[in-house]
Amino acid sequence: MKSQTQLRVTHISPTRPTTADTYASKYVCPSYRTPSPDEFNVRRTAKDLKIPTDTSIQIAAPALAALIDGPCWLVPVPASDGRLTANFALASAIAEMVPGARVKCAIGRAHPVESSNTRRLRGLPRLTIEQHAIIRTTGPMKPLPVYFVDNVVTTGTTIAACRRALGWGNSLAYADASTRPAIHRQSH
Q: Which of 28, 99, 123, 134 is the most exposed place for a label (fewest CB within 10 A)?
């Protein structure tokens, strides 16, 4: 798994928003090229994290925990229907592995939105930051680094909406499905 570990490196400040995404694996879309067997496993794990399955949590949580240090906040990203269940389970598993990491349900959706997959199948564009309808649902928070926990990052608009609602934070996703080039993490 170490060879798949990738990271966009940035200094995270609780008072200054960042735009870097942190992820454990690259998500290769079959329409881009034929994924390798390992890449198919990443796709399956990323999809299973939406449920989530115990196996997907057991694969993703250690990979993501290895990318961060505590103390920090782990903020689950709400699904398109507003539920936090899947990403809360992933965030909780990560928190058990990172000393000082705490899960905080700090954001939600003002209303359900159509999923990206459904929009894509209908030939519609992805949601804008405003269309994500992400709102802050908590009061003041201790100024610690924030990681928005999600299964996959694509265009970054969901995380941008989360960051806008909370005021700061960085994404922590199992897989990166963007077309941006990856920066490999250096060993410590």
A: 123
